[in-house]
Amino acid sequence: MKNIAIIGAGMTGLSLAYNLQEHNITIFDKSWRPGGRVSTRKHDNYLFDHGAHYLSTNHSVVQLNEVISRYNLGKEIEIDFATDYLKNKKTRKKIIIGQNGMNSIPNSIFDNIKVKSYLNSKIIKISKNSNDLFSLFSEKKEFKDFDYILICIPYLQSKELSKELIDFTQIFSEPSYDPIHTVMLSYKDNNNIKIKAGLNLHKDISFFMNQNIKFNELSNDCWVLNMSSEYTKNNIDIDKTELEKYAQSIFEETFDIKNEISFIKSHRWLYAQTKLSFNTISKKNWINSKDNKIFLSGDWVLGKSLSDAWDAGEKLSHYIKILSV
Question: pLDDT, tens digit, for every residue of 178-198?
């Protein structure tokens, strides 16, 4: 049995923790909650899945399906979906959503695996001692004697944290991310919009989704808009009020909305989704130190979806099991 530290409580970190439960696992995350970009935002009586929106019913990760079924984490719904709103392409689409918002999926996995954890703990340094074991350091505390360190945070942050312990000169091309501005908005009255989600609402809005289909308790008409990655990159530091007014004007003009808005707020995701995965570049499923003690993984390894993130952790866990025999 090994002492294993997992840095990052997103879907990859949770996948590793789930698959390595026979070891002594400790999870660290700078956030107060698990899930990473699988985030459900609550404001007063408003609820928004403003990170990952849903899980496709045809994703290929068998184990994630089994976990969702085992813990009763999700439900399948069918909605009117625009595959390309600008080109008037629409269909009926089956998706999987969380029982109580998308963050309820990682949150429930975290609760069920019952491993030691330190949330609100940003790890800023890793060091190796004379006994060939590792210590982690937050701003306030040292955590000692780990056999393995599994880092599951955005690639650039992973690289910065491990650069003294991993030779990155062998990484000739690096994975990259697209940033996305997300806008959450709510109206006092139902706008009776039939299309509940879709792509390409506008050249500057790449995705939109109704939240009432996820949260039965919502009385107002709530929506989430993803600005396009191109727009976000060109307006990365835009004033939030300006951004929100622009997104609102597009949404209301598109659907001819006359109702009064009751809430609007935006959030910037710098590492919203993988643009170019590490596997695409290198055909490899993780980055590791020469001594096979420190590993980097995450959604940047295989792709941008929740299932890709889980799959990355599952693949790495198989290798860790072989090493630790």
Answer: 999 999 999 999 999 999 999
Question: From 3.40.50.300, 3.40.50.410, 3.30.230.10, 3.50.50.60, which CATH number describes the 3-323 domain?
Answer: 3.50.50.60
Taking the CA atoms of residue 86, residue 180, residue 5 and residue 103 in that order, the dihedral angle to the nearest 10 degrees is -60
Residue 26 pairs in a beta bridge with: 5, 116
Q: What is the DSSP letter of 44?
A: T
Tell me, what's the pLDDT at 312? 97
Mean pLDDT, rounded, of the chain: 95
Reported as a single tens digit per residue, the pLDDT across 45-60 is: 899 999 999 999 988 8
How far is the C-alpha of 283 from the C-alpha of 25, rounded, in Å?
A: 28
Tokens of 117: 């954890």
The conformational region for residue 132 under phi > 0 = left, psi -120 to 50 = alpha, else beta, is left
Is the CB of residue 298 less than 8 Å from the CB of residue 309? yes
Torsion of CA 305, 308, 313, 315, to 10 degrees: 180
| 280-290 per-position pLDDT tens digit | 999 999 999 99
pTM over 0.85: yes
CA–CA dist 287, 148 (Å, integer): 13
The identity of residue 114, as a single letter, is: K
Angle among Cα 64, 65, 68 to the nearest 5 degrees reads 85
